[in-house]
Every structure is written in structure tokens, then in C-alpha cells.
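Lab manual, section 2.4: Encoding a predicted structure.

Procedure: take the sequence of the chain (279 residues), apply the prediction step described in section 2.3, and record the output as C-alpha cells. A sample record is shown.
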Amino acid sequence: CVHEGGELFAWGQNAHGQLGVGSQTTLIPQPQLVERLKGIPLAQIDAGGAHSIAVSLSGAVYSWGKNDFGQLGLGDTEDRDCPSYVGALEHWKTVFISCGADHTAALSKEGLVCTFGAGGAGQLGHNSTRNELLPRVVAELWGARVSQVACGRQRTLVYVPSLDKVYSFGSGEDGKLGDERKPDQLIPLPIDPPVNTGKSCQSTDHCRCVQSVFTCNLCNVFMRFTQDSYLNGIATLRDEDVDALISNSSSQHWESVKKNIRLIFSSEACINGSFLEKR
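Recorded output:
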């Protein structure tokens, strides 16, 4: 979890270093500070089967934990017990990431999707069952401008708002892709909602429409198509807070503003996040 002051804490199973605390102790029952990410303003974190990924407000991606299929995107298959910078995504402008059991998907600001890690069931969408040790763009989605991505155990779903379509690829075992295709779908193909309500989605309502697709027994992937998909809990300096402080107001709101500003200026991560462009 991420404290509002910007610190990341982790605990639980750690056999592969997936907690990022610099050791591979099998179990860590108490929250531990992830020192390597101290001072970095985080926008989102996600965890897979035994690996973890974090994205900063500036779009930098860090990965750690199990890496036997290349799911960390670092070009090798060695586990990491501390967060490592994913240099291959340096110019990617990542805004969202999702972890499967042994694969990872990253979404860029421009709506491109790249995947890496285990590909044995086609969950990477590259028309093969090959593993990828480095991030690779899903060519079939080029130009589609994806807005959401969600990884399951061995499958991946993406949403293209301009087409109002959900695309799926990976294992279709037990109908988890929402149709009766062959078990392994190697490239993204659109799926249809299971129930036709007779209502069309408006562009402003696409989040609710897509959420219904993901929760109508199409698959066992859970995805929140709301702002909650991002952390948004880290405290950052806002123009209105500065204005309130300068005005020297005696209102109760002014007291909360002062408290918030004290928190921000006591944290490197909060200070760094306060002077970045909005995502």
C-alpha cells in the first residue's frame, strides 16, 4: 500500500523478492518500507502471481519479484528483490500497467499497448506462444487507441472507446474469453457483450458500459474502470491550496490546507509529484 506521504509499504509472501524490500525471506508479516522507491511520486502499483510493477507520475516504470518468463521487462529471467527501472519503457509515457500471473501489459499515453513475460497461451497478443523478455508493442492494436487494459492469469483484455469494443487474447479455457473460440487466442479479437439491453453507450458513459462487460461472467478478470485504478492518494500541492494559504484565512478549511502543506513538504515524493504535469 502507498501512504499519502508517498511511501510504499509491502508485506506477505516474498519467496521471489516480490515485496521489493531487498531480501527473499519467504514471509514478511509486518509492513516494510520499499526503500528503493523512496522519493518517487507513484501513480499506480500492481501485483501479479509473484511480481510487482509500479508507475510514477512521470511515467517511469519499476519492476521486481519473480522473473522466470521475463515478466519484469528487464531483458533477462533473473528475479529481483528490489525495484528495477524498466529502461525499455523510458520513452513510452506509461499511464497504466496491469499484471497477470506471469505476464505484464503497459498502456501508453497515446493508447498503445505493449506486453511482456509469459506468452504460452497467447496472452501477449503477438500471434505466437513465445515468451518476451522485453516490452513489445501489440501490433494488432496499433492505431486503436486503447483506454483500458486488464490482465488475468493467462489472458488479457483491452478496451477501445472509439469502437466501443473489448478485445481479448490468451487462454479461452472454460469460456473465460466470453465466447467459444479455440482455447488459445493468439491475437486480439473483439468480443460482444453477453446481454443486449437495447441501449447504446454514450462516449461519456463508456466506463460503465465496459465495466458491465467485465462483470457479466465473461471472464474472471476484475478491472475497475474508474479513477480508483490509479492511486491518486499521494498528497500534492494544488493551486487552490496555495491561494488559501496566501489569503491567510481563518476558516477551518485553512487549517486543513496548512496540515496538507506540512505533509507535502515533509515528503520527497510529494514535493516531486507536485511539480509534474498532470497525467
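Check your result against the sample. The radius of gyration is 20 Å.
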